[in-house]
Amino acid sequence: MQNYVKEARILLALALPVIFAQVSQTAMGVVDTIMSGSVSATDMAAVAVAVGTSIWLPVILFGHGLLLALTPVIAQLNGSGRRDRIAHQIRQGFWLALGVSLVTMVLLYNSHLVIDHMHSVEPKLAEKAVAFLRCLLWGAARLLVLSGATLPMRKAFPH
Description:
Layout: H1 2-37, H2 41-51, H3 56-67, H4 70-79, H5 86-109, H6 112-115, H7 123-156
Helix pairs in contact: 1-2, 2-7, 3-5, 3-7, 4-5, 4-7, 5-7
């Protein structure tokens, strides 16, 4: 029984950040819905199409997932005592983040091509969704370049 409690504590310590992230993402969606819903139903639907699981989230998570591969590389170099190679990996991660964010920005800017192929989307709704995504594309660069290039350093080195 003691072994079970010990393993449950370890598992909970690993799961808490994931739970917190999921609740935070859901809360952001709720806030987006409340804010846009107070303007009009069309705005609320445009935010749901653009920001929700349709376009923004898959694109940004793809880029972020690519950059998360840098964390174990840096941790392995740090753990094996090859710290002289870490700076090179960080620089490569920065260039990867910059390239991925540029591709992400192009995809988000051209999101009208995807939205136009969605069935039964009104033109006014599509126009507002594209406008939301074009506003968000500038945040994608910041998220991927700064978070993607610095997150591995924060996660790989023990405090």
